[in-house]
Write a structure and sequence with these properties.
8-stranded antiparallel β-barrel, 1 helix, mainly beta, elongated
Length: about 180
């Protein structure tokens, strides 16, 4: 399993570095998930997002998901957990009105979670649908909702098992991103 994770990391780094070197258009920014419906979380819930491509109308995306490291001690026992995730995708933009765009496109990625003897890998495929507003010539604001499907593989007692399959239609949290054009 460690070999698979390391190969995925190396592949992702290679893919991003070779594609972004030739990009003529680049954006960086922050992405936040709605904590409930359209109510978005505080700033510390934001994660980085990078977009690049040959033009504004078609960009590749790389975004990190919320990552955390937790440790606690309770009743003489020690507990620790770690979670991280990332998504790579392609975003297409079609202008509906001046400065107002329809955005859509696929993403692949997932999460890794570890808590003591338990570990979980959750690969997912998503298709984002949303809108983008150009606030200025350098700043974009976008909101999107995903259609998604995924599985979960969990390890307990040194054995991996598929424990979950999901297909969601607008069941995941909405995303809000603000990016700056470089």
């Amino acid at each position: 399993m460690k070999l698979i994770i390391n190969l995925l990391r190396i592949s992702l780094i290679f893919l991003v570095s070779t594609n972004s070197l030739s990009a003529q258009y680049k954006e960086i920014g922050l992405n936040s998930k709605a904590s409930s419906g359209t109510v978005f979380g505080p700033v510390f819930n934001a994660s980085p997002i990078v977009k690049w491509g040959k033009s504004f109308e078609s960009v590749k995306t790389l975004r990190a998901e919320r990552t955390y490291l937790h440790y606690s001690q309770y009743g003489g026992n020690q507990y620790g957990s770690f979670r991280t995730g990332a998504y790579y995708g392609h975003e297409y933009r079609r202008e509906l009105a001046s400065g107002f765009f329809l955005i859509h496109g696929p993403e692949v990625g997932g999460y890794f979670t570890s808590t003591g003897p338990y570990a979980s890998i959750q690969p997912r495929g998503k298709y984002q649908l949303g809108i983008l507003l150009r606030l200025s010539s350098r700043i974009n604001l976008a909101i999107s909702s995903p259609l998604s499907t995924g599985v979960s593989f969990e390890r307990t007692d040194s054995q991996w098992n598929q424990t979950l399959f999901t297909f969601d239609v607008f069941n995941e949290m909405n995303s809000l991103s603000m990016t700056y054009i470089l």
